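Section 3.1: Structural characterization of target chains.
Under the original work plan, the team committed to producing a structural model for every single-chain target entering the pipeline before any wet-lab resources were allocated. The record below documents one such target. The sequence was received from the expression subgroup and is listed exactly as submitted; it comprises 175 residues.
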Amino acid sequence: HEESQTCELLQSSEQARAKLESRLARKVRWREEAEGQIREMVTYGEGLERKCTQLRRDLRETRRRHQARGEQAESLKCSLEQEEQLSELLKARLWALEQDTAELARQAEDERSSRLRDAATNNAEMARLQKEREDLCIALRDAKRAGEVAGELAVEAARHEVLSAWARERAQWTE
């Protein structure tokens, strides 16, 4: 009977050992799976950190380009304002010259009626003033056109720069 008890005890011990080994194997598998998941999470986290770093760099670059475009636009705006001021000055000078020309024409008429012999001198003066007026009209027209062209070029350059920057940024985001 003692042998039978020993046998039962041995069987019971074997069963307990088998259960413990099974539990231990499950825990080892669970631990390996958990470690694998942790490694995956670390790898994923590192990838996210790299992506975040790249996005921060991209943001800094975008801000720098935006500031540069703003400065360029401000510079173009100042240039345009200077061209407009020059145009206004030339218009004022032209008006003054037109007034002077009108006054000289009246003086020339008075002078002609009072002194016929000075007519040749007055005619030469009138021709010179008329030529100066025409030259100033041409200069004003040229300055006005140059201002318009400069404005158009500035607008086109700014537009091109914004479109180029937008296309580059869009290309970066699609990558």
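Residues 2-114 form the longest helix (113 residues).
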